[in-house]
Amino acid sequence: MRWNGRLVLLLVVFSMVTSSMFTLTVVRGSLREPAPSGAIAALGDAFLPGSGQNQYPKEFAKLHDAYNVIKNQYVQDVPVEQLVEGAIEGMIEALEDPYSAYMDPKSAGEYNSALQSSFQGIGAEVTMKNGRVTIVSPYKDSPAEKAGLRPNDQVISVNGESLEGLSLHEAVEKIRGPKGTKVTLEVIREGVAQPLTIVVIRDEIPLETVYSERITSGSSTFGQIQIAQFSTETAARFQEEVNRLEQEGIDGLIIDVRGNPGGYLKAVVDISKALLPDKKPIVTIEYGKGSASQGETYYAAAAEAKPYPIVVLTDNGSASASEILAAAMRESGGYKLVGEKTFGKGTVQSTVQMKDDSLIKLTIAKWLTPNGKWINNQGIEPDIVVRQPAYFHAARLPDNKTLSFDMADPDVKNLQLILQGLGHDPGRQDGYFDKRTEEAVKRFQAEQRLAVTGRVDQATVEALHTALLEKIRDPQNDLQLQKAIEVLKQQNTQ
Fold it and tell me: Does one domain contain both 448 and 401?
């Protein structure tokens, strides 16, 4: 296996946590080593006029003419640097590729900061989809998750400012911010007629990536390991938790990559290597025609399969490296996938640092599953499809708005969804606040020992949100997890 085949390889879903992009990264020799200066110089020299073999390509003549027209005839003086920056941005935008991008030095610095152990922001991965900023997945326990942002939510405005016409990078600039500050997002959600208003309080986002626990069900004990994303330490942490669970004794393992937007390629390959035997394929990176190498395949290395069954949990927030793991476990390991279809991120990006510390990130390859399938924009269908209850997808109600009788509002529809999930049937879920909805609110308020007014004020919103999170986090209400446990039990009896 060769880890030095490219400067930086990323299967990238853009991050909302800074104005940066983050997902699947491999760096020559080291995951943190900068790109070799020779490669940077070579890229820079190709754009320099003048001497010998480094003349402009003839196709650049039109660009040079346009530059001269602007410099000589435009009504105002324009800095040369501004024209050059615009030309680079224009070339990248002309690719119509949501994963290719140009970052100026300031943005590049923020990109690099996203690879640290923590950062400040709302904690969600985003991409540009159909011209709109789209949530790939919020991080586990992040402000974004707590506020009710969900995969595939489309953000159309930030603090009242429309994002229409902005690049993804420009949009993320408006969303990010320091700990303790508030950002108001207007969000379009599939199945909801009107946009939702979601308020998020930015915070410090730690990058702990592996969580594990033992689950007892009847006479069986199973391990569950959730991978929040794939960082430099994830493979080692995963192995630590597997070792601990095995020492304590388990009858099966659930690997949970729901809501995992991706991460370092080396991390997901190392995890797959340790789980899959017989040197079976994990993933193939297939480069473009301009590459010296046409492809690289990474293989498993375990001496034998685990002595217990394994199930992988996925959903539509499982992207990139998560999809590599899911596909490898099923196609090379024969393990079952349970949950929902994955996001569908099957391309690879190379990021090169320029002389002025700006970055160009370019799609240079695609990755294929062990069976040779390209899942880009398609995702991976699980073996057993299980959808969570509707209230799992409810958004947080606004803190600055009181909901009351006779209102017709998208927030009322969201309220009715929450009340239904908490066992207080409002009788309808169409967004009209009628008497039955009011009675449901009163029952909830009485249960929580709040003032029984039938009006949803800030205190009621907080109580509703707390109760909803408790219900969502109760493993008994996690239908996908319960199905995974059922599958493990069935496999243990076979």
Answer: yes
